[in-house]
Amino acid sequence: MVPLEILEFPDPRLRTVAKPVTEVNGKIVNMADRMLETMYQASGIGLAATQVNFHQRLIVVDVSDNQDKPLILINPKIVATEGEFETNEGCLSIPGFYEPVDRFEKIQLEAIGRDGEPFTMEAEDLLAVCIQHEMDHLEGKLFVDYLSNAKRQLIRKKLQKLQKQRA
Ligand code: GNR
Ligand code: NI
Can you give the pTM of this predicted structure? Predict the structure, then answer.
């Protein structure tokens, strides 16, 4: 499979706010499956549609050790939260940079699955962090937005230098 291209910070398209999925049809299911393959190929634990320039509310996640527990969440909505949890976060759109970010420790959410059926679930620790990180992408938000301006500008400069070297 040809993986989808992952947009990199500071690409302005990463700032797009995604629209709700109105129907879980073949196009959405196909996109979800391609996103999972792209995520596994990139050794990520999550991927948001925004990152592959598809601006609908769709995320995929797999925090399992063997990367064999794929989770597809369509129109995810957090309905309850609990606690705080700090993790060193990374992002496939900001490759090579890791910084601590505060998130909720536990979340309860509603979403629609690959089968088009709504469901609710609870997540904690790394899974909860990952889902919050992916849902931020759907709002056009990146983990570097939680850092100081100075730190974010430094990461942007370093990343743009690397991107120029690759081009
Ligand atoms: O692969 C990823 N690892 C990760 C580690 C800590 C917190 C969040 C993440 S998500 C990231 C993949 C990604 O960029 N998803 O948008
Ligand atoms: Ni990310």
Answer: 0.97
